[in-house]
Amino acid sequence: MSAPASASPADSDLVRAARGLPVSRTPVWFMRQAGRSLPEYRELRAGTKMLDACQDPDLITEITLQPVRRHGVDAAIFFSDIVLPLVVAGVDIEIKPGVGPVVASPVRTVADVDALPDLDPDRLGFLETAVRRLVAELGATPLIGFAGAPFTLATYLIEGGPSKEHAGTKAFMYAEPEAWSRLLQKLSVSSSTFLRAQVDAGASAVQLFDSWAGVLSAADYAERVLPHSRAVFDGLGERDVPRIHFGVGTGELLPLIGDAGADVVGVDWRVPLDEAARRVGPGRSLQGNLDPAVLLADRKTVDREVRRVVEQAKAARGHIFNLGHGVLPETDPGVLTHVVELVHELTASSAHATTPGR
């Protein structure tokens, strides 16, 4: 699939970079690489609702593989959606085109929290089937497991859908601290169950997406959110896979995001990676952080910004090249392929491969 000649996913450049080990070249993958900008994805998804596609092993497998085939990225990300564990558990959610996930009965009271259904692992057979197929197809290319973090799941449940201010979520967090804690405990179990199923079926790493954590102060995050994100990673037990943790607008939270149990801290485009390395400290690798909008610029600009990210990442223990958030739908797929090739070209050297700690 992708170019590195590692014998197994466990010895791939992605896993090694996540652990801070020497690599043959900087590994690359893109958030929202499975779909979005790919015409073959749009053709395959035509007529199929997102949440239906996310529960069809055939579609999951093909969509997850498409960007690996096209771009030569160093990892596949399991095709899913942040709200899928809630849907599988029985929460009535619809993803409306142009809007996002819409919850039929939002969580507004303590009773609503207690009434939320738990995720039964026995309902994840479709996921396990898809992961096993993917692992067989990917060979030495690692598969990254996918799950939404408790806070981000809570925002959808409380707001009833996407929100800019997340005012209802924060009001509930402040006004109902005990119910808030119970809600995030429930959601941490759900996220952990979802990740465990992927790892047990063969995923080589996991990423926890806390898309909206950046709306919180560091104090609120540390007290009211971090323990529950940590519980997700703790729920993986002794499973020996790297843990990646990512949020948007989380520059002030970077050290805390690492403290939640991550081996790799994802960084959005707002904080340069050398500064992010200083904030996170030497014990964790970084992932990121090209601005997705740069990919819409001319090739000279793309190359300059890719080089900047690669250079700044030298301050980190290890580096996984990625965007600072997801691929924009209007992105030319050829530009993504070019970025993969350029990062590989810039970082493939004997010195890069043999210098411990980067």
What is the fold's blueprint, element by element?
Blueprint: H1 13-18, H2 39-45, H3 50-53, H4 57-71, E1 76-77, H5 84-89, E2 93-96, E3 100-103, H6 110-115, H7 125-138, E4 143-148, H8 150-159, H9 167-175, H10 177-201, E5 205-210, H11 218-224, H12 226-234, E6 243-247, H13 254-259, E7 264-266, H14 273-280, E8 285-290, H15 299-312, E9 319-323, H16 333-347, H17 350-354
Parallel strand pairs: 1-4, 4-5, 5-6, 6-7, 7-8, 8-9
Antiparallel strand pairs: 2-3
Helix pairs in contact: 4-7, 7-10, 8-9, 8-10, 9-10, 10-12, 15-16
- Number of helical segments with 4 or more residues: 17
Shape: globular
Helix and strand composition category: alpha/beta
Q: What integer is the average pLDDT?
A: 95
Oligomer: single chain
Q: Please write the string of helix (H) and strand (E) elements.
A: HHHHEHEEHHEHHHEHHEHEHEHEHH
Number of separate domains? 1
Radius of gyration, CA atoms, in whole angstroms: 19 Å
> Mind summarizing the main beta sheet?
7 strands, parallel
CATH architecture: Alpha-Beta Barrel
Which percent range describes the beta-strand content? 5-15%
| CATH C-level class | Alpha Beta
Determine the N-to-C terminus distance. Answer: 26 Å
List low-confidence stretches: 350-358
Instruction: Predict the CATH topology.
Output: TIM Barrel
Kindly state the number of beta strands.
Answer: 9
Strand order of the largest sheet: 1-4-5-6-7-8-9
Helix content: 40-55%
